[in-house]
Amino acid sequence: MPTAAQHHIVTAETIVLDPLQDSDDAYRSATEYVAALPQPLAGHAATLQGTFQHKLGLLPGLTGPREVQEKDYLRKKLVGIALQIGFLVSDLKRDWRN
User: Fold this and answer.
1) Contact (Cβ atoms closer than 8 angstroms) between residue 81 and residue 93
2) Would you say 36 and 21 are in contact if contact means Cβ atoms under 8 Å apart?
3) Cα(30)–Cα(16) distance, integer angstroms
4) Contact (Cβ atoms closer than 8 angstroms) between residue 31 and residue 79
5) For the purposes of burial, counting CB atoms within 10 Å of the CB of 12, is it exposed (0-12), middle (13-18) or buried (19 or more)?
6) Is 50 helix (H, G, I), strand (E, B) or coil?
7) CA-CA distance, 41 to 64, in Å (whole number)?
């Protein structure tokens, strides 16, 4: 039976693979996934988790109308990082490292 964390990352992966889905849903699932991960992670997954948290902390500072594209870009990067973590900790079978 999948854990709550696995459910979130599988949902994010499904959304990313379907171009008709809303990327905000993928971002939300990715954020919930990283928050639900057991602590501590090891190796590259731990590094990616730290990168995810750092980039997530940058989002609140992007508030103006000019930052909309930057915010969207950052959210997509966060989803990509979460997918990589999902592969590294064996919650996903597809290799999202690029």
Assistant:
1) no
2) no
3) 11
4) no
5) buried
6) helix
7) 35
Residues 6+ apart with CB under 8 A from 71: 59, 62
List the end-to-end C-alpha distance of the chain, in Å, as a whole number: 29
Structural tokens at position 14: 């499904």
What span, in angstroms and rounded, lies between the C-alpha atoms of 39 and 75?
Answer: 23
pTM (two decimals) = 0.86
Question: pLDDT tens digits, residue range 6-62?
Answer: 888 888 888 888 877 878 889 999 999 999 988 888 999 999 999 999 999 999 998
Whether residue 84 contacts residue 33, with contact meaning beta carbons closer than 8 Å, is answered with no
Q: Is 87 helix (H, G, I), strand (E, B) or coil?
A: helix
